[in-house]
Design goal:
The protein has 283 residues and is of the alpha/beta class. It has 14 helices and 7 strands. The chain is globular.
Amino acid sequence: MTETSHGSWEEAVRWLREQPERADLVRDAYYDDPLIEAADRYRRSNEWEAVRAIIGTGPGEALDAGAGRGIASYALAKDGFSVTALEPDPSELVGGGAIRGLARDAALTIRVEERLSEQLPFAEATFDVIFARAVLHHISDLPAAMREFHRVLRPGGIFVATREHVVTTAADLPAFFDGHALHHRYGGENAHPLEIYQNAIRESGLMLERTIGSLDNPINYGPQSTAEIHRRIAGQLVPIPMLRPLATALLDLPGVGSTVRRLASRIDRRPGRHVSFVARKPK
């Protein structure tokens, strides 16, 4: 890996968008423009469909924590929620400025708060839903942030954290950093062992209802389709190429693929794999 001096997250994303060979990654990460088209593509994605199956639709008060460019804020607002976007970066490309521009272009009301998760400027029991996409692994004091999320969530409210980077042990971090497309540009990536996330959620007072493994659900592997994941699994499990289409067809059968994906998730040890969490505040 070529060493590069670290810059800002905005500079890193701007650099990525200037690499023609990374065009697919830019699109898959929703870093492309026009932002309103990227946000609408996200709302129509298999990933958001999986999120919607968990949180439902509005009305209700929703907090998009670590909102970035605002693609989830857009999806929440389009689905009928009153949305507050929490994003400390004021950037016009990847932060609060981008969210305000998106809300304006989409004629949506999205309140933007440029604050950190560890000190939320909201009263207790403000939100029905707290959604955090790829956010927890960036937070400096995760237990403090989780306590704040618990505080501002209404009794019975739902907390969903998706696409969190997981490592089996801290010794896997260098491999994760080396493989990440942007860490060498801004130095801000991170990942935790699974129990770090789970303990922080539980110790905040939230009830952890579900841990979603890396291959369990499109919430973690979108925008890849389930069919694409099945082809990948067949390619890894079946050494004879001519038999892989048959293995893929078997995985596509109802119940077969989901079972195999759950098992594959349990043995997945890739550094930085995605895992998601669903928790609820007791009534």
